[in-house]
Specification:
Four copies of one chain form a homotetramer.
Chain A lengths: L5 H29 L4 H27 L5 H10 L9 H25 L15 H23 L6 H15 L8 H6 L14 H22 L26
Helix pairs in contact in A: 1-2, 1-4, 2-6, 3-4, 3-5, 3-8, 5-6, 5-8
Chain lengths: 249, 249, 249, 249
């Protein structure tokens, strides 16, 4: 069985990341419009909508590209798969990152247009400080650990629901509301609404996310030292009947 | 194994579409009654109830008719299956569309009666404008892409939960609250409550949904060019152990 | 493989129905205590907690007794299985009904005690009238159709999640908040809190539920005329790998 | 296939229990910050976030350690497995309990830091009295019954979602908000925020949880008298294709 070409996979990454940002920004705009002044209710709607949308998007695009939608996941895939050439190549990694960034910005514009906001506006919402950066480290580390632990345990078929549930929870249990994704972070710059982030706040978030990547990969290789052939199946929804492998076997 | 006859399948489409409209209109009426003035809380209850109900209805009726409940899905099934006669025939398509429309209106009447509203009333809720129509294009395109991507990837067993989650999310991330279904749109004309839509607003919504159909099918055939034998299994819940096919194999 | 004896199965039905009533009454008491005056938020918490609890209880007790927890389901099982002796026998049916009723009342008492309410108190909440009774017919008919459609389609492994989701949705889309269960209805008489129902309102609800039973069975045998060997597997969670049968094959 | 060593399993228990406490405490802090004075909305967010997080954490750490995260579960595993040496040994039990306690406290500190609260503070929230202790008995008994019933019925693959849903519901239907876990109870001492518990209230809760353990195990051995080889697979997410065993066979 052959893999889809890089062009088709990059298109899937762009569309998936774009629709993810549309879901995050759009549901945030709807929530603030319907429940002005009720921040808790806004985040509740935003988190449930994001969890459901993310699970569905991984189902749609997983069989094509692996449904990374996230430079941190693509970087980890490339990093963990270097030795046995099971992950993304450097060239593929580049294609994925560009597609994710372009898609994220486009998805933000689509959300703005759907909600009759300026097509492009820079967010004025400052986010940062040590507690929030720690939140991003935890959120991103947990995400990386989840995605690759499922792959190494041969359970990639539950990845769509699990990643959705994880982000839905992390919106609440991290102080940063769990961006956990550099491409989505950049995309969310271009809306001055609930889900936005000011340009000046992006570098701090991205650095924290990269630290989270290192932490997540570190924990992963301690808990699941054996990659085996599962390394190739990251967030890939196409393997419901994957053979079960015992950890450490 | 033989297929159920068209009469039985049309009955399933009518009942399923009807109960879907009952769930949408009924939960909207309950939410406005219990939380007057709190639009965000109303939509939260309405979206969760719809997501749960839709998943369950696909489980109930999927093995009989494929659980389309939606002219856009039936049209796509007919369109995508013409070449190899795997989808609905033109005659079957006609039966499905009539059943969906009749069921949708009846389901609205049942909801009105359950909530002690006039059995039939025309909605006075105007919905429209470019941002909302864009919302319908996105919502419908995503729905078509989801349903047929799962079928082509051999994962139709997760369709019930995935479609429910998708609509639950799209209520929030599209400005139109994601009608995404011409039959349901028509059914919702006949209640002057939370979920209603004024007759004059229907054409704009339906046109946007048809554009969404074209967009969704276009993306589908680029990402999943190979239909294979899965073409016949659209939203069919009866295949939990379907063989896994690699995309593009 | 032998079936558990009737004593053990009746114990499972009593415990399961009891814990279900504890979940319904307890979450209602918690919701009114935490959100006084906010009826919508109360029902939202009550419905989500009930949906989650019901799914879990079916998982726990399904392999022992089939997890009916509901006289309507047991009656339908007996009725549908008479011809080929696949369902409950009359003696078993009697044991199930008694266990469900006793369990329901005991579960209500436990909830009262957990929330520091009088151990036994008659509810003063009147519920009735044609719209609500219609709600009970729809709710109960849908439940029966769901449970037996899944059994006949060979998909009993998803019954726990599906029944939980169904009731969670039906709390909202029926005007009666979907009791749909004579034993639970009786149990809820014995608390004067959110989830209670006045004794005088019970007969109307139970009659409506029995009409719903007839409607649900009627639709079932039209849509799924072939019971086959699945008839025995009603709401039984022990068959994740059940052979898939085409409807009408 | 060999089991991971005790060191690696203890690390998994510490990390998993820690992240669970981070999720509980963190989402509670976020909820009170965003919805001050709205206790019902706070618990709704807290319960949904906990349910999602717990399911995900069991998926991540289950294949390594069995994802107990809870001394009550580890004790039951040791107790039920003594005869045929299928459960934890006494030495392993000790390692698990220490890891869970250390992890729980560390997780609370991380949550405090993420939300800019004092790294360590003793809670001033008193919790106790007979109704709440009864709540803990019910919550813990139900949890033990759920976990081991799924193991004995050969359905450990649904344990992650089921345990998450159970705790999400039990937050609402028990008056104690279902701590149901001595390690998490101790961890929650060290934050003076929504999820905290005063040190003086810990003994009562832990005693009630241990009574719940006995009740849960008692009901289990009556309903599922045959442990068989499933005894070893407690909350272990690595067995999606486990052979199905009939109860009582």
């Amino acid at each position: 069985m052959s893999r889809p070409g890089l062009g088709r996979r990059a298109l899937a990454e762009a569309l998936g990341t774009g629709l993810l940002v549309s879901a995050v920004v759009g549901s945030g705009a709807m929530a603030t419009r319907l429940s002005p002044g009720e921040a808790g209710l806004q985040l509740l709607a935003n988190s449930i909508a994001t969890a459901f949308a993310l699970a569905v998007l991984i189902l749609i695009f997983g069989p094509v590209s692996g449904a990374h939608f996230n430079p941190v996941v693509s970087l980890a895939d490339w990093w963990l798969g270097r030795r046995d050439r099971a992950g993304l190549s450097a060239r593929e990694l580049g294609g994925y990152l560009v597609a994710q960034l372009v898609g994220a910005v486009a998805g933000c514009v689509v959300a703005n247009l759907m909600f009759d906001l300026p097509a492009v506006a820079l967010s004025s919402t400052r986010r940062g400080g040590a507690p929030l950066w720690l939140g991003e480290v935890v959120a991103t580390g947990g995400l990386v650990l989840l995605v690759f632990a499922l792959a190494r345990a041969g359970r990639a078929s539950v990845t769509p629901a699990a990643v959705g549930a994880y982000i839905g929870a992390a919106y609440w249990f991290t102080s940063s509301t769990s961006f956990a994704n550099p491409a989505v972070t950049v995309g969310r710059v271009f809306t001055d609404s609930f889900a936005g982030i000011a340009p000046a706040s992006v570098p701090g978030f991205v650095v924290a996310q990269l630290i989270g990547l290192v932490v997540g990969v570190g924990v992963l290789v301690v808990l699941y030292p054996d990659a085996g052939r599962a390394a190739d199946a990251v967030v890939d929804a196409k393997a419901p009947a994957a053979p079960v492998r015992a950890a450490g076997a």
